[in-house]
Each structure stands twice: as C-alpha cells, then as structure tokens.
Design a protein that fits this description.
mainly alpha; 6 helices; 79% helix; elongated
Length: 157
Amino acid sequence: FLLSLIPVLFGLDYRSSLKKRRDLFLNLKSFVIFVKEQIRFCGRERNEIFALSDLNPEFNNDFFKVIKKALKNREDLTKTFDEYNDIRLKPKEINEINTFFTELGKSDTEGQINHCDYYINLFGQAGKVLSDTYVTKSRLVSGLSLSLTAAMFIIMI
C-alpha cells in the first residue's frame, strides 16, 4: 500500500517546487517595487534599503537572507545560487537576479529607477507565466499521480 503512494509524493514535491518558483518571482517583483519606492521617495542608498527590508516579513525568507548575506560579504551571487538552489532556478534566471542585485546603486537616481522598472516588468512577467504554469501543471500532476497510484494499488492487489 505504501509503495502505491510514491507517485502522489512525487506529485506533491513537483507542485511544491512550482509553487516556490512562482512565489519567489512574485516576491522579487514586490522587493523591486519596494526598492524603487525607497529610491524615488526617500533617496535611500542600497545598504539602507536592505536594512529596511529586514523589517518586512515578506523579504525575510531564506532566499533573501542568502542574497543579503552574500552581498554583505561581497561574494559572487552566481556561486551563492549554485550552492543554494532548492528552488531549481535556471541559469538565465540566476543571471537576471544576479544582475539586478549587483547593478543596484551603481547609477544616478533616475538610472536606478529605470533599472527597477525593467526588473519589475521582467520579474512580473516571469511570475505571471509561473502562476499560469502552476495552475495547469498542478492539475495535470494531481490527476496523473492519483491515476498512477490507483494503477499501482490495483496491480499490487
């Protein structure tokens, strides 16, 4: 009986990874909006913005903690993502996230606002695609895993 539940467990794991990716990009979009507001309305520097983001529970998950620690220690984010990749980010996504964080604060206020606008759009589109993917694939995976579980259970009887 327990062996027949294996497809359900794999299905749940796959759905969980899809949800994590979707939530990550939606959180990244929210973070970039937060950064843009801090730059535009308060004229804050990068380190001040990161310190303020620590007060927001939305930006205090493990992913943001790893990023902030790497930036504080002046480590390469690409290497950090290779070590911390339970969300299964693709190399292109890692490069985009790395570029946003490393280029932040390297231009004047207007340039930083344009930089944020670009990444709000980029992460927003990725979040929308991943939301749509999550809905369709989670339904498919649920049905498939339950069907495989039923088939395995019948075969074992």
